[in-house]
Design goal:
Number of strands of chain A: 27
Oligomer: homodimer
Largest interface: A-B, 83 and 82 residues
Strand content of chain A: 15-25%
Distance between the termini of chain A: 50 Å
Number of helices of chain A: 11
Structural class of chain A: alpha/beta
Shape of chain A: globular
CATH topology of the largest domain in chain A: FAD/NAD(P)-binding domain
Chain lengths: 450, 450
């Protein structure tokens, strides 16, 4: 029998709080205080939950996964630099220290605003206050073929699938007698010149140059191509022009073929068709050309803006529902650099989650809510080994110093002491050896997209 | 364009060696020397390949995966102690330093002994010498229902599936209002009291006691049970009786319910039925009660012994084929402790792989082959944090010292400097914090077996 002597075990059969139905009992602590349900354990949801945990409320966090993913490092999982486990951390471990916060692994399927119920793939859950922080998904602009024939990079499954695909393509190329087929297998096209596309293209070029070339001595790796395709006339549109140029030069020096002013019309099996009619044979196409709010945004019956994002008041709640908040990638609010929409980045989600939580605590205490104010910590992108660009508080850096800054900030934010340790060990190893430790093909899923 | 200036790039279109068909060209180096094909990149296959790489032969290693798995630590992946990547290492990275050794990710489907061809899921491959080291699979003794309703532990997919299953079971239990259903979800039965079963049961008991109990404060974890079921009258049958008793006491102290003399008749959905008619409701049943040779052994048309293992001559080749060797878990040879069959353990595979390679090199040089001689380095099993048993060269140890020995030996054998670093970091972290870093549910596969 497992030893269970511990003082704070709360029996599952806790009596239901006043006016609550039985079905809702087992999941969360009940201290008779207002219950806040937080949908999503990303940056927005977790920052909200942590802030709320210090107030006189009960908090229940829902997520379809049992972990928080540190997505800024997701491209490193896709390029065999880090294992999945080092950028993900169990939500329960994060919430463990808060007595009034609980977690349930459930996917939210909708909200009944009138009855104040979150509908899930399990039991429906009552709330007094609700924070929706379900994040974003790839935006294929309604083009299902695009969704089917390209690889995304939004979660761990995406990243592992992409890693398996690329490594399998090299394995198959090593067995392929036909030079044209072989060239196709070794061609990777990344669509979208934002930070995700740039980081991914750079990391793939390095993987090929430093690792795969040595792994496949029989293969002529000069046939391997990494292309970064951008519809606009520059990459990293949110950065200053001087840093854009530096990033572009750096990418090209690393062997990435950057194609600006090149819009994709469609993706066929093993080929990209551009709007000007040109075609490019490519075994793997990554779609990093746009995100939209998570599908949950579509079933709420509320006003949506560009990218399906939910329009919120400056206090981050729905305009007509002071008890329902939407934060992070799902939310649409103007006020960034004047009247632009706040960007879908981790910093905005972190700060909005905190503000939404504070506004809930204000309501509980009968205080007025405050409008969201953003402290812009700057903009980062990494382009490869020892190279990044950084634009913060008027400082514009590129190269090694920016990379050290990027490394430091990402390690600081990464949840969990253990993960920091593992990531640091991986990076130190890769840095000094030019090797990538985790180039394993862990599944044959990739054949799905052959 | 990727920079490919490197001296030792060998063009794919190397001219075929005398008398070889074109289809076989691109994969392996050809220096006009005898080609040895090694099927399997486990302990046996890799130790053979490394030995051969120092001889005047060309070596081609095949495996359906692109990595070598360090299976002695597989139970730690299943119990959220290590990530998959830290016990697996790319075969190409291991073979990289040998100019005359190559790798192809292909699964062997059979052998045409007359034409000296290995049949694969891709092109057929010619050999002059062949080493079959495809390892073992779970033995369900022809009972398909057993295979369907239980979890195995033979590769990374198995381990991750088991981890996902157990962690998901706890997540579902936290949402389950029915106490009987909840108890079922929290019951894990391990069938088989060999080293795998013992290590797994111990590690699960520790996971529950030290980690999950804190993760699920709302759940009464005293309902969680780990049972180890063994048909014989003792666990760890290959160890001396004194160590068996110590291991048994240790397991029981850790909370594992050990049931000896208990044979399983069948596994139903969510229940184990024993031969005496008793039933036990269990959400997860792990089958660790026997292994058999890999399926490849069945299609060779050669004599097989118990567990479908291929009978080999003392020199490790097929009795009537001096050019075909079988080593490791796939091979059946008597001579262990007198007239017993050599056990299916890493040490035997390592040493047999080496001897088979030496016998091939002997044939190439016109020297006589030598019979396999086993240097018994002893027997190890770990039972949990700071506890192991060790039986080597007449020394019988248990407890902390044995555990340190176990840790040291496993780290030494683990392929790759990076993996050693990561595993050590993980272990140090777990040891001092009692935490497990990688308790992520990475897939919903587990519903398959609900």
């Amino acid at each position: 029998m497992i030893d269970t002597r511990q003082e704070n075990t709360i029996e599952l059969a806790t009596a239901p709080a006043e006016g609550r139905s039985d079905a809702l009992v087992p999941i969360a602590p009940h201290m008779g205080r207002p219950r806040v349900v937080v949908v999503g354990a990303g940056f927005g949801g977790l920052s909200a939950a942590r802030t709320l945990a210090h107030g006189a409320v009960d908090v229940l966090v829902l997520d379809r996964n049992n972990y928080h993913g540190f997505w800024p490092l997701l491209y490193q999982v896709a390029t065999a630099g880090l294992e999945s486990e080092s950028i993900a951390y169990p939500v329960r471990a994060i919430l463990r220290k808060h007595r009034n916060a609980a977690f349930a692994m459930l996917a939210a399927r909708g909200v009944d605003f009138e009855r104040r119920l979150v509908l899930t793939d399990g039991v429906p859950l009552e709330y007094d206050y609700l924070i929706l922080a379900a994040g974003s998904a790839n935006n294929y602009f309604g083009n299902d073929a695009l969704a089917e024939r390209t690889y995304g990079l939004k979660d761990l499954n995406d990243a592992e699938r992409l890693r398996n695909r690329i490594l399998s393509a090299f394995e198959r190329a090593a067995l392929e007698p036909d030079p044209a087929r072989r060239a196709a297998l070794l061609t990777l096209v990344v669509v979208g010149g934002g930070p995700t596309g740039v980081e991914l293209a750079g990391a793939f070029a390095e993987l090929i140059r430093h690792v795969l070339r040595k792994d496949y001595p029989m293969l002529d790796v000069s046939q391997a191509r990494v292309l970064l395709v951008e519809a606009g006339d520059r990459i990293l549109a949110t950065f200053p022009a001087s840093l854009q140029r530096k990033a572009l030069r750096r990418l090209e020096r690393m062997g990435v073929e950057v194609r600006l002013n090149t819009a994709v019309a469609s993706v066929e099996d093993e080929a990209v068709v551009f709007k000007d009619g040109a075609q490019l044979v490519a075994g793997t196409v990554v779609w990093a050309a746009g995100v939209r709010a998570a599908a949950l945004a579509d079933v709420l019956g509320v006003a949506q803006a560009r990218g399906a994002r939910v329009k919120v008041a400056p206090t981050l709640n729905l305009p007509d529902r002071p008890e329902v908040f939407v934060v992070g990638d799902m939310a649409y609010l103007e006020g960034y650099h004047g009247s632009q929409a706040y960007p879908q980045v981790a910093q905005v989600a972190l700060q909005q989650g905190k503000q939404a939580a504070r506004n809930i605590l204000a309501q509980v205490q009968g205080q007025p809510m405050r409008a969201f104010r953003y402290l812009d910590l700057g903009n980062f992108a990494t382009i490869g080994r020892s190279a990044a660009i950084l634009d913060t508080f008027g400082i514009r850096l590129s190269g090694f110093l920016a990379w050290i800054g990027w490394l430091f900030i990402h390690l600081m934010y990464l949840a969990g002491f253990r993960n920091r340790l593992i990531v640091l060990a991986n990076w130190a190893y890769s840095y000094f050896t030019y090797d990538r430790g985790v180039r394993l093909i862990t599944s044959d899923d990739e054949t799905r997209k052959t």
